[in-house]
Each structure stands twice: as C-alpha cells, then as structure tokens.
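in:
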C-alpha cells in the first residue's frame, strides 16, 4: 500500500550528479524567463526573480515553502565554494547516494531509496 511519505520519497532521482526531483525541474522550466530567471555561476544555478515578479509574494508560494526558502537564503548568504563543496561531499556520503553511485552513470535517472538514510541513522543510534 502506498503512503504519502513513501510517494514523496519515491519521486526523487539520482539526476545530473546529485539528488533531484523532476517536479521541481518541471516547475522551474515553466517559470523560467517569466516569474524567475535561472543564472549559472560555475556549478551553481541561482534562481532570481524574473520580469513578471517584482517581489517574492508575486510567486504565490505557500507559507511553508517561503519559510524554508528564507532559512536556506540566510544559511547560504555569502557562502563560498568551500561551503558548497562540503555540502556536496555530505550529499555523496549519504546511504541513498552510496547505493547508486558505483552502479550508475551520474547523468542517469535512477530512483533513490531515501529511506536508506533513515534506516542507517536508526541503526547508528541503536534504536
């Protein structure tokens, strides 16, 4: 039987050298050039307000998502490449990534078992 938690966890893919959700990719493509603009800076893609959005409220994001994005912005404001590198190293050390990294090419879309990290942490804590 499917549960909302499992459905969400199964949507994530090993995609373009890191975890990604195809629904996010689709939404960004639909908004690009209108509500948002995507700019590349090295290995990083920055998302900025586009011509059809003068402020964040114009995007009509749910409050929960706005709070998450605000926390991310505060945490990463002025972050240099070293901080991004440390984050990538952490991501690649998680159980879901370790399960697929040796058996698939980085550009392949492979469903990640996101429950594997939870199970690993529970095991490490002895619960």
């Amino acid at each position: 039987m499917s549960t909302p938690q499992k459905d969400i966890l199964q949507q994530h893919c090993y995609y373009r050298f890191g975890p990604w959700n195809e629904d996010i990719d689709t939404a960004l493509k639909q908004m690009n050039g209108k509500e948002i603009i995507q700019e590349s800076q090295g290995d990083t893609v920055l998302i900025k307000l586009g011509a059809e959005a003068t402020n964040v409220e114009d995007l009509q994001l749910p409050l929960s998502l706005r709070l998450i994005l605000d926390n991310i912005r505060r945490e990463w404001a002025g972050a240099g490449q070293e901080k991004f590198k440390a984050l990538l190293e952490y991501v690649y050390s998680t159980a879901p990534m370790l399960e697929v990294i040796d058996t698939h090419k980085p550009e392949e879309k492979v469903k990640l078992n996101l429950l594997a990290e939870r199970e690993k942490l529970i095991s490490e804590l002895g619960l």
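note: Residues 63-76 form the longest helix (14 residues).
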